[in-house]
Amino acid sequence: xxxxxxxxxxxxxxxxxxxxxxxxxxxxxxxxxxxxxxxxxxxxxxxxxxxxxxxxxxxxxxxxxxxxxxxxxxxxxxxxxxxxxxxxxxxxxxxxxxxxxxxxxxxxxxxxxxxxxxxxxxxxxxxxxxxxxxxxxxxxxxxxxxxxxxxxxxxxxxxxxxxxxxxxxxxxxxxxxxxxxxxxxxxxxxxxxxxxxxxxxxxxxxxxxxxxxxxxxxxxxxxxxxxxxxxxxxxxxxxxxxxxxxxxxxxxxxxxxxxxxxxxxxxxxxxxxxxxxxxxxxxxxxxxxxxxxxxxxxxxxxx
Amino acid sequence: xxxxxxxxxxxxxxxxxxxxxxxxxxxxxxxxxxxxxxxxxxxxxxxxxxxxxxxxxxxxxxxxxxxxxxxxxxxxxxxxxxxxxxxxxxxxxxxxxxxxxxxxxxxxxxxxxxxxxxxxxxxxxxxxxxxxxxxxxxxxxxxxxxxxxxxxxxxxxxxxxxxxxxxxxxxxxxxxxxxxxxxxxxxxxxxxxxxxxxxxxxxxxxxxxxxxxxxxxxxxxxxxxxxxxxxxxxxxxxxxxxxxxxxxxxxxxxxxxxxxxxxxxxxxxxxxxxxxxxxxxxxxxxxxxxxxxxxxxxxxxxxxxxxxxxxxxxxxxxxxxxxxxxxxxxxxxxxxxxxxxxxxxxxxxxxxxxxxxxxxxxxxxxxxxxxxxxxxxxxxxxxxxxxxxxxxxxxxxxxx
Lengths: 303, 400
Hints:
Chain A has eleven helices and four strands; from the N terminus they run H-H-H-H-E-E-E-H-H-H-H-E-H-H-H. By secondary structure, chain A is mainly alpha-helical. Chain B has twelve helices and 15 strands. Chain B has helices at 8-24, 64-83, 105-115, 128-140, 171-183, 198-213, 232-240, 252-264, 280-286, 306-318, 326-345, 350-358, and strands at residues 50-57, 91-98, 121-123, 145-147, 162-164, 188-194, 217-224, 245-247, 271-273, 294-297, 363-365, 368-372, 378-379, 382-388, 391-398. In chain B, a hairpin with a 5-residue loop joins strand 12 (368-372) and strand 13 (378-379). Chain B is elongated.
C-alpha cells in the first residue's frame, strides 16, 4: 500500500512536469495550429539557465533557501520567455503565410539546431552536469512514505502556475486577445487585435512554463544535459495529445495521467523498461479511437 | 529517438576506460613521447638479434588517452625487459602504430606490422571493436595477439591465436555476487539492469547465477533504459522488497542519478556495480549520495603486491609522476605475459609461442595472478573499491 502511494507521489511529480511542458505545446497549437517541436529544447535551456543563475543568485540570497529557488525560477522563466519570443520572431514569423508543414519542419530544424549547438564543448558540452540544490533538501517520512521537498515544490509550483495561466487566459485583455486569435486570426485582426503581439506573447508564456518545467525537473532528478528535452518533450507532446491538443485543462490532465501511468509501469517487474513504449502506445491508441483527446471536443475552446 | 549515447560495447569501453583514466591521471596529463615507437630509450639493439613486437594503440583521436596510457605501460615493460638483458638474450623492439581511434585503421596497421615489419606477436587494443578488427588478421597469419584491455567476450572468439590479459565483462558479475554474499553478508538483493546495454545484462546474468548458487535470494529484478532520468518508479518497487543490497551494473551517469534517487526515497542499502561506475562524474554528480557504495574494477594503485608497488614507482619515475591507471597496468601486463610465453616457448615460432601462451598459468602480474583459460581469457582477481570522501578506497581483491 505504501508502495502504491509512493508511486502515486512519484508519478504526480513527474506528471506535473509533463503538464507544464504540455501547456506550451497546446497553447502554441491553439493559436497557430502547429506543433512547436523546439519546445522540449526550451525546457532544456530553462534548466541550464537555472544552472548558471544559481551561483550569481546565491551571492545575493543565501543558497538553498526557498526565496533563492523562487528567484532563480522566475529569472530562468524570464530568460526563456525572451528566447521563445526570439525563436518565433526569427524562425516562424517569416513563414507565417507558408503552408503549416513548412513551419513544422522548421520547428524540427530549430530543435536540432539548439540540441547540437548546446552539445558543443564551447557551449554546454555533451556530458551531464549536477544541478545545484536550489532549495533546502529535506524529506518527510510518513510510515514508509517518503516525500522530498523537491517533489512538494514541483506539485505546488505546477498548481500555482496553472492557476496563474488560467487567470491570464480567462481574465486579462491579452488572454482574451489570445482566445480571439485562436478562434479566428483574421477576424481578430479586423477587430484591432495585434496578431503578432499575441503570438509573441503566447510563445513567451509557453516558453516560461517550459523553463519552469526544466528547473523543476532538474531539481527533482539532479542532473541536466543538452538532450534532456528530447524524450521529455516528446512525452509532454503525447500528454498534450492525450488531453486534447489545444485544450489547456486537457494538457494538464494528460500530463498528470501520463506521469502516473508511466511510473506505475516503471515499477512493475517485467515491463519496467517499457515505460516509454507505454507512453507512445497511449498516443497511438488515442489517435486511433479518440483523435480529439480526452477533453478535446469537436469545437474545442482553443487556448 | 535519442542519439545512442551509452549503448553498445564500444561506447561501454569508452566509458569505463575514460573512467579509469580520469581516476588515474592528474591534471597535467602530458602524453610522453608516445609516438616514439622504437625499442625504448637507452638500450640500442645488440646486433641483429632482436625480437620484434607489434603494438597498435589509439594514440590520437577521441580515445587517445586510453591508447596513450596503455602504450606507456607496454613501453615501460619493454624498457625494463631490455635493461634486464632482454628475453632469451635478445632485445625487444616495440613497433607501435597509431589506430587514430578510427574504425578500419587497426586492420591496416596490423597488416603493416605483420607483413612489412615481420613482428612475432601483436599487442593491442584497448577498445574491443578495434581488437576485433585486428584479431582475424593475426589469426590468419598465425601471429599471436594479446589484447591488454578489451573485455568484450567476443574478442578472443576470433581464433586460437587471440588472447587477452584482462578479465571479460561478465566476470565482474560473479565477483560482485561473491562480494555481496561473503563480505557484505547480504541475504537478499535486488538487481537493477540497463536493458539497453549488453554489458549491463551480462553482468546481471552472471551476478544472479552466482548469487543464487551462494544461497542468496533475489527480491526483485527491474530494468531501466540508459539515459533515463527518472528511476524513482523502479526504486520504489525495489525498496518494497527491502533488500540488503542492490546490484546496479550500469554506467556512471545513470548510476549517479540512481544513487541520488535511492537516497531520496530512503533506500539506504549498499549499491554495487562494475567498472562502468569508475569516473569522476560519478562523484561529481552523485556527491554524498554515492558515498559508501561499492564497485569492481581491474586495478588500483594500492593493490599492494610486490610487483604492483614496483610498477607504480617505476611508472611514476618514467612518466613525470603520473599515476598509472588500469589501462597502463594492463598494457604493462600484456608485454610481461608475452615475454613469459617466449621464454617458455624457447623462441618466437608462432605455433610454439601460441601453445606457450595458452599454457600460461599462475603468472604474477601487476593486475593480479593470471591463468589463461580455455577461451584464452585471463582468469584473475578483480579489485573491489568503495567510494569514500569523493575518492576510491581499495577494499579487497576477489578471486574468480
